[in-house]
Amino acid sequence: MLKRLKTLALSIKRDGLALWFAYRDPRTPIFARLLCIGIVAYALSPIDLIPDFVPILGYLDELILMPLAIWVVLQLIPVEVIDESRQKADDWLRARKPKPRNWFGAALIVALWVLLIWALWSWLGPVPR
C-alpha cells in the first residue's frame, strides 16, 4: 500500500509540473489555460493558502484539493498536449532540476490573506478601547 501511495504522489507531482508546460502550449484551450495558471501559481507558490502548521486543514490542499483541481484541468486539455507535457515533466524530474518557483502565486496568496484580514476587520469593526 505504501508503494501505491508513493506512486500516486509522484504522478500528482508530475501532473502538476505537466500543467506548467501545458499552459504554455498554444493548443491548450483558453479556459483550461486560465485554470492551469491558477493551479500552477498555487502549486509552485512557496506560500500555502492554508499553512501546513494548521492541524488537519494544513495538508488538506495537498491531499485533496490540488489532486482534484489537477484532475479537472487535465480533462479540459487535449490528450496530445497532456502527453507531451507529461513527457517534458518526466524529463525535468529525471534531470533533477529544482522545482520552479512562482512568486506571482506567492503574491496572490499574500494578497488573499490581506484581503481576508481586511474583510474580517471591516466586518467586526475596530476594537473598542
Describe this structure in words.
The structure is a single chain. This protein is mainly alpha-helical and 129 residues long. Helix content is 70%, strand content 0%. The protein is built from 5 helices and no strands. The protein has helices spanning 2-22, 30-43, 60-76, 79-94, 103-124. Helix 2 (30-43) packs antiparallel against helix 3 (60-76) and helix 2 crosses helix 5. The radius of gyration is 17 Å and the shape is globular. The model has no long low-confidence stretch (mean pLDDT 80).
Helix and strand arrangement:
Blueprint: H1 2-22, H2 30-43, H3 60-76, H4 79-94, H5 103-124
Features of the shown structure:
mainly alpha; single chain; 129 residues; 70% helix; 5 helices
The tally of strands reads: 0
Measured as a percent range, the helix fraction is 55-70%
What assembly state would you assign to the polypeptide chains in this entry?
A: single chain
Shape by Cα distribution: globular
Question: How far apart are the termini?
Answer: 57 Å
The number of distinct helices, counting runs of at least 4 residues, comes to 5
Main sheet properties: none
Helix/strand-derived category reads mainly alpha
Summarize the helix and strand pattern as letters. Answer: HHHHH
The radius of gyration computed from the alpha-carbon positions, rounded to a whole number of angstroms, is 17 Å
Low-confidence stretches: none
Portion in beta strands: under 5%
